[in-house]
Design a protein that fits this description.
Elements lengths: L2 E6 L3 H7 L6 E5 L9 H15 L7 E5 L8 H8 L6 E4 L5 H18 L7 E5 L20 E5 L3 H6 L14 H17 L2 E4 L8 H14 L3 E4 L5 H7 L4 H15 L6 E4 L2 E4 H16 L4
Parallel strand pairs: 1-2, 1-8, 2-3, 3-4, 4-5, 5-6, 6-7, 7-8
Antiparallel strand pairs: 9-10
Helix pairs in contact: 9-10
């Protein structure tokens, strides 16, 4: 998956329109985009949308962003939305791998009640939204087999630390958030899950979005979150491997396959070792997810 589009869970119109956005995954939001007095109604709206959308043969993955563990709303969210059998749950303000493990247990019980296969509901964590969570980024590896994606996020974090902004006048993240971005990337790779870059808040500046996507791809991110449908085509284009990159990756994989047990192989005048193979295999997995290989 390359793109995760947030959609307010209390808007039937926006939910229905989002199915044509081209996003690989929709994140049906019960948290920040829904007012406190509208959350109960939003649960019902999201469940109805899930039931209808799941009937479509060609559809994006359907995730639900629930409310955080400490809000008192999470259990009610899960009780409601598991009835609609979402593909996954996004947990905001996740503090550590222990939080992910706790959510795993909550999901297992509700899957049993709903008659869903155990482990069928995947987990996507927003892992950097509090200051304390930064120091727990190494705890996600092995926390739960449900975990498939981890994103860093700076909007809530900047509020938590009373920062004036998390981006400079050029639109780029300021230095504290560059550190968090890098740690989030390493945390996802260490946990062997999809590393997802944060949102680009200026949805009208598609050139700035493209630059940020290209930098994220360069550094190792494989997907990005979006807050507006207009951002999705840019994100998908940047995070779709080029035909040249796919061809090169196939060559590298074939070279190692033809030399089983070799730690280093020669290809096109270069000496390649195991990290090159790992990188090539990941690129091909990304290409297959995009329907290219």
């Amino acid at each position: 998956m390359r793109s995760f589009l947030f959609v307010p869970g209390d808007s039937t119109k926006k939910l229905e329109k989002s199915l044509g956005s081209g996003a690989d995954a929709l994140v049906l939001d019960l948290e920040d985009s829904v007012a406190a007095d509208a959350k109960a109604a939003a649960r019902s709206t999201v469940v109805g949308f899930l039931k209808q959308a799941r009937k479509q043969s060609a559809r994006p993955k359907l995730y639900v962003r629930v409310n955080a563990l400490d809000t008192g709303l999470l259990d009610g969210d899960l009780d409601a939305v598991l009835e609609g059998a979402p593909d996954g749950i996004m947990l905001p303000k996740c503090g550590s791998g222990a939080d992910a493990t706790l959510l795993d247990a909550k999901l297992a019980a509700r899957e049993a009640i709903a008659g869903l296969p155990d482990g069928s509901t995947k987990l996507f964590v927003l892992a950097t939204e509090t200051a304390a969570s930064i120091f727990q980024l190494g705890t996600y590896r092995g926390a739960t087999r449900r975990l498939t994606a981890l994103a860093w996020a700076g909007e809530d974090l900047s509020a938590a630390v009373n920062a004036e902004t998390n981006r400079g006048t050029d639109g780029r993240c300021t230095s504290p958030y560059q550190v968090v971005r890098a740690l989030g990337l390493f945390a996802a790779i260490a946990a062997e899950v999809l590393p997802v870059d944060t949102v680009y808040p200026n949805f009208r500046n598609l050139d700035g979005l493209r630059i940020e996507c290209e930098e994220a791809r360069r550094d190792g991110f494989m997907a990005k979150m979006a807050i507006h449908p207009a951002q999705v085509p840019v994100i998908n284009a940047v995070f779709t491997p080029s035909t040249e990159a796919v061809a090169s990756a196939k060559e590298i994989v074939a070279a190692f396959k033809n030399n089983p047990g070799a730690g280093v192989v020669a290809l096109n005048g270069e000496m390649l070792d195991r990290p090159h193979l790992i990188k090539a295999e990941r690129l091909l997995a990304q290409a297959r997810a995009a329907g290219l290989a």
